ErfK/YbiS/YcfS/YnhG (Gardnerella vaginalis), 272 residues
Amino acid sequence: MNIFYALKSVLKSLIARFVKYIISLKSPKNRRIFYKRALAVLIVLVFFGFVGLQVSHVVQEANKRIFVNIRKQYFKSDKLDSTLNGVKSGKNNNVGAKFKAKKTPLKSIDKSKDNSNAQNQNANAIDFSNLWKISTGGAYPQIAGVDASNLRINVDIAKQRVYFYKNNNLIYTMIVSSGINNSTPKGDFKIRHRGYHFYNSTEGMGGDYWVGFIGAKYLFHSVPTRVNFGDYIVEEAQKLGVPASHGCVRLSVPDANWVYSNIPDGTPVHIE
């Protein structure tokens, strides 16, 4: 109760001072002082607002350069940089674009040899800004009817790749984005849940075509969306290929759709 009366007393005092100040503005001298102070405050606010906008612009540009440099480092290991110089703009504007690739028989299950995969056979068709719109490993393999026990998924966080195996043979590689600050759990899991769309109001983003490997908390899913299905956040989507999520594994839209539609429950997942 003492606090209540103290607050009431302070409030009364403030109101009385405010009323007294308003009455004092009847004097031309006091009005001039008031206008000068108001103008000074306005100038300060405009100045700091302008400075804030400039700083925000500089930070955004710095972040873009950082992500470009990081992405180049991840792609350099797969020798994609040199092929990207010849990319023609607009070539991959359609989601799920089909690519013609010369198939090469797989002689090894060594996941470090990405050159045996259609991904590098189609490297000249990859455009960083539209990577999230395409099938990042080229034409998808046919695995309809294959039992989960004959399939395996390996996630390589260091390379930002997901490798798909059938009967211990590497059949497909996807470019992904795992969690920032090593937030993607490592270990052995299994595909158990899936859904068409989700939205996390806490993070302010969701995803399409999700498949869970730890309950419905850690998922493979498309690049981030806003509240509605298909409303993709482009600035987040363009981070594909570097760690960017809160722990899930982000995929391009066609890749996420393929995993959602083709990978059965019970498929083993290994993350390292």
Summary: Confidence is low (pLDDT under 50) at residues 77-125. Residues 132-271 form a domain with the L,D-transpeptidase catalytic domain-like fold (CATH 2.40.440.10).
